[in-house]
Amino acid sequence: MGHVEQTVYIEYLGNVDVYLGMGIKIVTGLILGSLVGYDREQKMKNAGIKTNVLICLGATLYTAISMLGHVQGGGIEYDSARIPAQIVSGIGFLGAGAIMKDKGNIIGLTTAATIWVVASIGMTIGYGFPVIATIFTITILSVLKLLGPIYQGFESTKNHKYYHIEVLSHGDIKNLVKEIVFNTTDRIDELHEQIVDKETNKRHIDFYVYMHPKKMRIMGDELRDIVQVDRVHYHQIESKSTTSES
Predict the structure, then answer these.
(1) Which of 37, 39, 141, 176 could link 49 by a cystine bridge, Cβ 3.0 to 4.6 Å?
(2) What UniProt keywords apply to this chain's record, in alphabetical order (predicted)?
């Protein structure tokens, strides 16, 4: 049996050597998955760079291999959409694991949705459309970065206030505190952590936020619900540079 040259399709390049094509797909998946993951990691979300890269690369490889098997099927009936269809349904279970219910509040919906769309980016790359996947990634990043501030811009900020928040804990909860805060507002400044007692691992965290008083009360309650937290104190200030009386 003679050797049959294997090729894969890449938009704007047409059919290229299988190793070159797979290399382009893998590198594109690595870059685009990293971009989305970096945004999530900056916001202290559970699904960070590594998670999003692995999801994107996995979806890319599964889809690319299914397409390669379809092309090289040798006359055998082969449904190239079968494996990608399983990706769509299977990624839902992974996304469901990112959703948590805490005291009546549902958190992690955006993270779950991000996992789902990152898989779609990988599938688009796997089908041979890295440029379309790049445009889609830029759109996703725009939604994640800009939609929140734009929405807040339409909200009335006349009742928003600056608050200085202090948290005393007996464990390392800095990342958990940041996650709770970022779920409530993007306006956080000057977060500092100081170890008060090394033997008991007692720590003092203080930071500034700008938000509505009602949201501040809700966030304060969420911080107090953390097991390691001993005390939460916050007070309104004129600006983040103002020292307010307790």
Answers:
(1) 37
(2) Cell membrane, Membrane, Transmembrane, Transmembrane helix
pLDDT digits (tens, 9 = 90+) for 83-119: 878 888 888 777 777 776 554 456 678 888 899 999 9
CATH of domain 161-237: 3.30.70.260
Backbone dihedral angles phi then psi of residue 102, each to the nearest 5 degrees: -130, 110
Note the pLDDT of residue 1: 45
DSSP-assigned letters across all residues of the chain: ------EEEETTTEEEEHHHHHHHHHHHHHHHHHHHHHHHHHTT-SS-HHHHHHHHHHHHHHHHHHHHHHHT-TT----TTHHHHHHHHHHHHHHHTT-EEETTEEE-HHHHHHHHHHHHHHHHHHTT-HHHHHHHHHHHHHHHHHHHHHHHHHS--TT-EEEEEEEEESS--HHHHHHHHHTT-S-EEEEEEEEEETTTTEEEEEEEEEE-HHHHHHHHHHHHTSTTEEEEEEEEESSTTPPPP-
